[in-house]
Amino acid sequence: MLNLNSIMIGSSQVKKLAEFYEKVFEKKPDWAEDKWHGWQVGSAFFTVGEHSEVKGKAKEPQRVIFNLETKEVKEEFERIKKLGAKVIKEPYEMGGGWIATFADPDGNYFQLMTPWEGAK
């Protein structure tokens, strides 16, 4: 069985993206080296780093969306909105849980989601 253990976002503006996610995760990176920064977020490792073939904003940001689980979707939505994340979709209910969608400074989409109890 495969286990997803990390996500890496390539960027041409690593410092700006790292500063943004430091605020989102409310902690300094667990690992930083040159133009790479990484955080342990739950059971996965989240990394932002320089990529030679990435320029500017994401052209199709909805192609890959990563989800951050929280039981406080509405409260976290307000907190992250104040950090300057672009709101794509305000919190809405779906299947008994809540979802909200943002874009980071590079335009990559990410969502806040109520934990999916059926996934355990």
TrEMBL record:
PROSITE patterns in alphabetical order: VOC
Domain VOC stretches: 3-115
Domain of life where this protein originates: Bacteria
SUPFAM superfamilies: Glyoxalase/Bleomycin resistance protein/Dihydroxybiphenyl dioxygenase (SSF54593)
InterPro entries according to UniProt: Anthracycline_SecMetBiosynth, Glyas_Bleomycin-R_OHBP_Dase, Glyoxalase_6, VOC_core
Annotated Pfam families: Glyoxalase_6
Family matches, as PANTHER family: GLYOXALASE-RELATED (PTHR33993)
The protein's name in its UniProt record: VOC domain-containing protein
